[in-house]
Specification:
The complex is a heterodimer of chains A (171) and B (261). Chain A is an all-alpha fold. Chain A has helices spanning 2-8, 12-23, 26-42, 53-75, 80-90, 101-108, 113-123, 129-136, 140-163. Chain A contains nine helices and no strands. Classes of the chains: A mainly alpha (171), B alpha+beta (261).
């Protein structure tokens, strides 16, 4: 039990960052992380000890976020209130961080979900390509092509954004 | 020199700073001779940095209490911060008051305490009276792993099923029961002679860690305690001195090897 906590605890900041980047709303993101930690604790004995605990945790979180996305899609217009929250949060929170910080978060929302996930897992969470493949449940080759396409597409979005500064999430 | 051609994967790994030094130099040389690709890769590096910078503040935030995994666990071995004199004194005073109150009210039996381990003890006795005496269907689930999973998911805490086989009581099974403080896990054990013990487990809002307290409700005796926010109450139709070793055994199992006393 104690060992499990010592493995889980240092992963929490990164898990929160990944969840926040996926859903943007801080409270919803933390709900996902809480859900993820609870599942991890309950299923700890099912984990293959030779595999990366980090990839396993991100996979649980990743799947929780996908499940939530599907539920939201089914619920359709019910999410109006949450959408306004998202728009509030989409305002760049850290303008001092540089030219692209606000833009880049708004732009990454426009990527297809599988590309966005790989970009975040590899580029921000520093997962290895193999770990990212495990999280996304695809071969490494697919991770590499999603990374390449996602980054080029994000670049195109950021380029177009510089001429259209009001670009926002369209749904 | 016959070198492998640069691949798109090499370029992505270059952006991620994951190339071995020789390959890194090859990619640099390749980019130096290809202005268009150099601009693309420079943009991807800037984009990766921007994304990291934009999300960096999140990891600096303090972890919200509901995501503190030590709260999920049945014990919190982080007493160091608590041992500063003033909070420790306040805590022991609070525990003394609560303990004294609990003892008084359980003894009186007129006005059962609404919270804390006194309440838990009463809930355990009530559940035992209803379920452990049931000859047809005392338990809902008998398989320990299924039971543990059910209780854990309803209590939102990892709760193992105590093992009393060493004491001659096998697990009959258990169920989730209702208490005024939300769901609780009830485990029922049976001896070869047919004597039954009940253990009720639920999260505690107050009395999160307490000493073991003894109760009696008519013919029933009980021992109740809490560790790290999880309360346990053992009940049986036996004398307190018979039950006491079983309670110690359960407490030892729930606290685990990492903490003592």
């Amino acid at each position: 039990m104690h060992d499990m906590m010592l493995i889980l605890e240092p992963l929490i900041p990164g898990l929160r960052r990944y969840a926040r980047a996926l859903v943007r709303d801080a409270a919803i993101a933390d709900d996902l992380v809480q859900d993820c930690l609870e599942r991890a604790i309950v299923r700890w004995h099912q984990r293959r000890p030779e595999r990366s605990a980090r990839a396993w945790l991100y996979a649980i979180l990743h799947n929780a976020a996908i499940d939530r996305g599907r539920r939201m899609a089914r619920q359709g217009r019910h999410v109006a209130i949450e959408d306004t929250d998202q728009a509030d949060l989409a305002a760049p929170p850290t303008q001092e961080c540089g030219l692209h910080t606000g833009d880049v978060l708004a732009a990454i929302d426009l990527l297809p979900g599988d590309q966005r996930a790989v970009l975040l897992l590899v580029g921000v969470e520093d997962l290895s390509y193999a770990e990212a493949a495990e999280v996304a449940g695809v071969p490494i080759g697919t991770v590499m092509s999603r990374l390449s396409r996602g980054r080029d597409q994000l670049r195109a979005l950021l380029d177009s954004k510089s001429t259209r500064p009001t670009l926002r999430r369209v749904k | 020199m016959n070198e492998r051609p640069i691949t798109e994967d090499d370029l992505q790994a270059y952006v991620d700073e994951r190339l071995e030094p020789p390959r890194q130099r090859s990619v640099e040389a390749y980019l130096a001779g290809n202005a268009e690709m150099q601009a693309r890769i420079a943009a991807l590096v800037a984009q990766r940095n921007a994304l990291r910078a934009a999300l960096a503040p999140i990891v600096a935030e303090p972890i919200p209490s509901r995501l503190d995994v030590w709260h999920f666990a049945p014990h919190r071995p982080r007493w160091n911060g608590w041992l500063r004199p003033l909070p420790a004194l306040a805590a022991s005073l609070a525990l003394l008051c609560i303990g004294g109150l609990a003892g008084w009210q359980v003894r009186g039996g007129i006005n059962p305490q609404e919270n804390g381990i006194g309440a838990l003890a009463k809930e355990a006795a009530d559940s035992y009276t209803v379920f452990a005496t049931d000859t047809l269907r005392p338990v809902e689930v008998s398989e320990p792993a299924t039971l543990s999973h059910w209780v854990t998911s309803r209590l939102h805490r990892p709760v193992g099923v105590p093992d009393l086989t060493g004491a001659g009581f096998r697990l009959l099974g258990g169920r989730v029961v209702a208490t005024p403080h939300g769901p609780a896990g009830l485990y029922i054990y049976e001896s070869k002679q047919g004597a039954r013990l009940g253990v009720l487990v639920r999260p505690m809002k107050i009395d999160r860690t307490t000493r073991m307290a003894e109760q009696s409700f008519g013919d029933l005796s009980g021992f109740t305690w809490a560790d790290g926010g999880i309360g346990y109450s053992l009940v049986g139709a036996a004398s307190a001195s018979t039950l006491h070793p079983f309670a110690d055994q359960i407490r030892q199992q729930s606290v685990g090897k990492t903490t003592s006393g």
